[in-house]
Every structure is written in structure tokens, then in C-alpha cells.
Amino acid sequence: VQLQESGPGLVKASQTLSLTCTVSGGSITANPSGWNWSRQPPGKGLEWIGQLDFSGSASYSPSLESRTSISRDTSKNQFTLQLKSMTPEDTGVYYCHAWSKSPPSRSWGQGTQVTVSS
Length: 118
Known about the structure:
Elements lengths: L1 E5 L3 E3 L4 E8 L8 E8 L6 E7 L4 E3 L7 E6 L4 E6 L8 E10 L2 E5 L3 E6 L1
Parallel strand pairs: 2-11
Antiparallel strand pairs: 1-3, 3-8, 4-5, 4-9, 5-6, 7-8, 9-10, 9-11
């Protein structure tokens, strides 16, 4: 499975970030599977943002849940992250990643830099 992130590299504070992950070599509806977003701020560790499972059910990090939405377009085999009310603290590299069990695999996108200007 290959994953590719796309979206703006620069957003202004208070705006909503929208990033899309395009999937190839596998289906986002494969049962079972999970389609995730994580991020890594500069100088800090990796932070999980949320997941959309094969059925379309979403789960989010409690610290980000109030600002986060993950949706999908099954016709395009894509899933999208929206993060509202961006601040400079949201600056970092954003990754989409996935797991599946049939066959077992874990895949990561290359990551995309997002910078929030104040």
C-alpha cells in the first residue's frame, strides 16, 4: 500500500487545515484496516491525531478531538484530515499511515510540512 499526502504547506492562524491522503495498492474499505493521521512538531515526538477505520468510524486524540475531523471519499480511495483553528503550535510534519490485516501490513506516507503563520 502506498500513501501520499497533499495539501497546503502554509496556513494562517485561525484557519482550517485540510490535508488529503491518496491511497494506492489497497482499499480504504478493506476489512479490517485503519487509516490514520499523525504529526511531528519540530524537536518533538510523533503525535497521533486520529483514525478512520474501514467502516468509516472515526476516533480522535482527546487533546485534538474538538478541532479534528477525518472523512473519506471511497470513490477516490482518499481520506482527509481537517484541523480547525490552527495556531503556530500546530506547525510540523503531518503523516498519513495505515494498517491492515489481510494481508498484514503497515504503511506510511512521506510526510508533508505544514507551517502556521501568526
